[in-house]
Amino acid sequence: MAIRCRARVLIVLLSILVGGCGTAGPASTPVTGGDTPVPPTATVLPDTQAPTTPAVLPSDTPPPPTPAAVPQTDTATGSLSPPVQAALGDTWTRPADGMPMVYVPGGTFPMGSTEAEVADALARCREAYNHCNAGFYGREAPQHTVTLDSFWLDRTEVTQVQYLRCVEAGASQLSTTCAEGEPMSADTAKAQHPAVCVNWQDAEAYCAWAGARLPTEAEWEYAARGPEGHRYPWGNEPGGAWQNYCDANCTHPWADEMVDDGYEQTSPVDNYPEGTSWCGVQDLAGNVYEWVADWSAEYAPASQTNPTGPASGFDKVLRGSSWNSFWDRARGATRDAVRPDRRAGYIGFRCAVSPEA
Fold this sequence. Notes:
Layout: H1 2-23, E1 73-74, E2 90-93, E3 100-104, E4 107-111, H2 115-128, H3 134-138, E5 144-148, E6 151-154, H4 160-168, H5 200-209, H6 217-225, E7 289-295, E8 304-305, E9 316-319, E10 335-338, E11 347-349, E12 352-353
Parallel strand pairs: 1-2, 5-8, 7-11
Antiparallel strand pairs: 2-3, 3-6, 4-5, 6-12, 7-9, 9-10
């Protein structure tokens, strides 16, 4: 009897031991030195996450539609530099900011205005305004022959959303005040309006950040007028509705009350396809004046090749016209100049790139 009891006790003890090993979990691996696993990113630690792109700077912002006037083919989307071999109508998308650039084939054109053209421009101004400055128009003369190499030019003015990306990257600055007009902001409604209230240094810094440069005054005028020296970017006939200028929404004495485009100041870029130039560039007339690379100086009568202006000066050249301009300021030969630190709601810019040899 005693033997049976001992046997039963032994059986019970063995069953308890076997059952305990079967239910125990696997042994934990000790955490030591380099064996420490990398913890997953925790949503409770937002400061450890990569910064997200602000809503006002969408990375998928589509480029403006290609104007029908000049058939264009994007020959090198995403490449770091434009193709060396290209033809009129080709485009290239700049990687840094997504700006479509158009190819401008080199050539020769009559830059500036003849004395007769200056007199005609002054007369048109005086039809709309009594205080036109003869000296302002006189700076377009003498007309002279200029020959340029090929280059690439932004299809539109640099937009606010593009400029804000540069500011986010720390390559430029954002002004909160400016002369006449509204400074840029995070207002998504104006994301595709031209960048404004930028001085010449801001514009130069942006183009450098984007892997480009400011165009020369000669390049700008050639893109606007072409080898034939057209009066306006679209041709030789007036076209007030083909640009954003001082219309019924403008308060200046020279406002054209017969036209109303719905914009009191700037409008979105690429908003006037009828104003496309011979090489497919948009907005060379109206919306905002544009900084170019040159210091201001009088023209020389001699022929020139790839002129870049004087080495120094007091004022930087502005080309084009703006939302507060008299309609005929859209002429491709019109030139103005202001101090390079000038910031205004009617001044913007675009960039250029030279093909690599």
